[in-house]
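Deviation from plan, reported transparently: DOR complex.
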Amino acid sequence: MTVFQKIKIIGQLSSAGVVPSVLDEVPGLASLDSSKYVLFPGFCDVHVHFREPGFSYKETIRTGSLAAAHGGYTDVCAMPNLNPVPDSVEHLRPQLDLIERDACIHVRPYGAVTVGEKGQELADLQGLAPYVAAFSDDGKGIQREEMMREAMKQIRSLNKVLAAHCEDESLLRGGYIHDGAYANAHGHRGICSESEWGQIARDVRLAAETGCAYHVCHISTKESVDILRRAKRAGVNVTCETAPHYLLLDENDLQELGRFKMNPPLRSREDRQALVEGLLDGTIDMIATDHAPHSPEEKSRGLEKSPFGIVGLESAFPLLYTGLVKTGQISLEGLVEKLTSAPRTRFSLPLGNDFSVWDLDASYPVDPAEFLSMGKATPFEGQTVYGRCMLTVCGGKTVWIDPSLQEK
Ligand code: DOR
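Because the crystal trials were delayed, the predicted structure below was used instead.
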């Protein structure tokens, strides 16, 4: 029997035709009991920060894409909060060149919606369109309604998706964690839920008016789930993502450490439960990591002073498998759909012959020292998870192989 005949495949492969021969050629795999492994189509993450150009002390295209491969991802879309911000073809060029040179998986840039992500003037959307997966000003909400309406109209005519970071800055008041029980008990300034859902409600109205394909980034509140559920029922062209930490953690898990700080913040238990319900009933279309690496020094400044952002690519699947599949909340097939076909369908990304192979029985504690990402901050540090990525193949090349396989 070939490796391919023994291995269990979960999810839709685009053309299983070439996978068997690729598998048979992987050193170490044939000599192992491959019946204990499962094969998934390459995961697709529409929300990562690879920090190049501009912030290569936090992450590079090379380290970010290696980290993605280590996590079973073969497609990612890279957010535009960079320097230069990719708001014109000229400003996108350095990123495209770095991707061409250094990426080991498919890295597709976002174009910025507004010049410099400043929300004042539209970027060169038409010029950027052929080169970008979609448009976003991630890291910043678009504050002015008229600007968002104009952006939606143009992005609709270009047949692209607008992916929005929803945050009403007039409601922030210097907050940095959820405005809830933990903030009250420990004297922290809170970020209210309305700063997120208020802008989603506005945008849903604008998406209905303009017909733009609208996608909401990293939703974190129960009101956001409600608004989006109703918008979908009303036929608005809207999708959304949440991230593993919003499904698995809430403010009760907070500690006074930078690795618990991200934007939006961990919310209440009810918010977390509403997100899981939204995932199960299809309101939440996909799971993205919002992989947002910062330097260890930057993240060492505690809850108040560290920058927002945690890493996610190398722990996402094991965490979700352990926290949602093994506990019986979602099927393995259902989870894989949220990580593979759902994001590709919405963002019109092709699935090549890319896949990863996992040992789902392997259990180990999340150890940031093992991450290939330059970012090490994760609230899940030390948590025991199931599922080890043994192999990732992208474009016919082995982009990650677990050292134990290589030794065989
Ligand atoms: O936690 C976050 N980090 N949220 C964002 O919106 C931006 C991101 C970053 O770029 O670090």
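The chain has a mean pLDDT of 95. We consider this an acceptable substitute for the interim report.
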